UniProtKB/TrEMBL annotation:
Residues 45-142 form the Chemotaxis phosphatase CheX-like domain. Keywords: Chemotaxis. The keyword Iron does not apply. SUPFAM superfamilies: CheC-like. It comes from the Bacteria. It holds the Pfam family CheX. CDD domains: CheX (cd17906). GO terms for biological process: chemotaxis. This is Chemotaxis protein CheX.
Amino acid sequence: MSAISADWINPFITAATEVLDEILGVKPKLSKPYVKQSDEPLFDITGLIGLTGEAVGSIAFSLPKQTALKIVSKFVGEEVLGLSADTRDAIGELTNIIAGRVKKIFYEKNIRMKISVPNIIVGKDLAISSVKGIPTIVIPFETELGNFAVQVSIKKASKEG
């Protein structure tokens, strides 16, 4: 398993911080990133997007239910009380915006990638496996709306194939 350099993780920190600040007016405070040791979801709801192209892997935006409800309430401008289809769509859209910002940052570094449509996973009795040999880095954040994490599993695509 190879280590992931800060050059590959910093775009995810920047994207999450900028998106929450610009769209929600929330300033996330970064906690210490770490390597995830299990396939279990960190929190109750996760938006997951695949990455392909010159870099391959995935990005996950994971939140506890209460944080998700507060963030979506702020995003849509009205109080949201449950994890309805609309709430899940909003988490998917925020995940998509963060991934799109990551894609733009990598594009500026001359690394081209494509992002998939978001999948939303609700529940904790599940497994989210990354590609074998690619570690998942958890980037935890704290906000006044609650904690969340961005999980990154990424590597430079091989030239084979």
